[in-house]
Design brief:
It holds the Pfam family ACC_epsilon. With 68 residues, the chain is mostly helical. 46% of the residues lie in helices and 0% in strands. The protein is built from one helix and no strands. The longest helix has 31 residues. The protein is rod-shaped. The mean pLDDT is 77.
Length: 68
């Protein structure tokens, strides 16, 4: 709820003020959603396989795609 505390704004001034408040609220909501998505996509744990990665050494390339 918005309440006028001081002054007597014209209907145009009040409409302009409400438009700015709504635009800022929408921008803040959109920024919060993109931050959540960005955090999920930039998480390095997302790219690491759940099983143990083979250590470098002889014939390590053969076990790269074998389940641990």
């Amino acid at each position: 709820m918005i309440r006028i505390v001081r002054g007597n704004p014209t209907p145009e001034e009040l409409a302009a003020t409400l438009a700015v408040v709504q635009a800022r609220a929408a921008a803040a909501m959109a920024a919060a959603q993109t931050e959540d998505d960005a955090e999920e996509w930039s998480d390095p744990a997302r790219t690491v396989p759940s099983h143990r990665v083979p250590h470098p050494g002889p014939k390590a390339w053969r076990t790269t795609y074998w389940p641990a």
